[in-house]
Amino acid sequence: MRLITIALTALLLLIQYPLWLGKGGWLRVADFEAQVNAAHKKNAELIARNAKLNSEVMDLKDGTGAVEERARYELSMIKQNEIFIQIVGKGQATPPPPLAPRPEPR
């Protein structure tokens, strides 16, 4: 009777091995699900980034508003007859002064 119990326990363990550690085991499936979730998250981030870049490209192609905004914020350019005022908080470095306005073409 004792031998039958040991044999059945051994068979039960042999049956459980592929279920947990085999090719299609639960541990591997859980790992693959985590990888799929990470890929979906990365894809969602890339889709949002592409949509933002696409809208920026459309703005640059269609109008001058986006070009003017970039010139103001990235290049610190100002229009003629405009006054540039910048408030710098404590501990912030002072950025370089804005570029001088270009004369209008005649």
UniProtKB/TrEMBL annotation:
Residues 29-56 form a coiled coil. Residues 22-106 are periplasmic. GO terms for cellular component: cell division site; cell septum; plasma membrane. Keywords: Cell cycle, Cell division, Cell inner membrane, Cell membrane, Coiled coil, Membrane, Transmembrane, Transmembrane helix. One of its GO terms (biological process) is FtsZ-dependent cytokinesis. HAMAP family: FtsB (MF_00599). Belongs to the FtsB family. Essential cell division protein. May link together the upstream cell division proteins, which are predominantly cytoplasmic, with the downstream cell division proteins, which are predominantly periplasmic. This is Cell division protein FtsB. It comes from Duganella fentianensis. The lineage of its organism: Bacteria, Pseudomonadati, Pseudomonadota, Betaproteobacteria, Burkholderiales. The gene is ftsB.
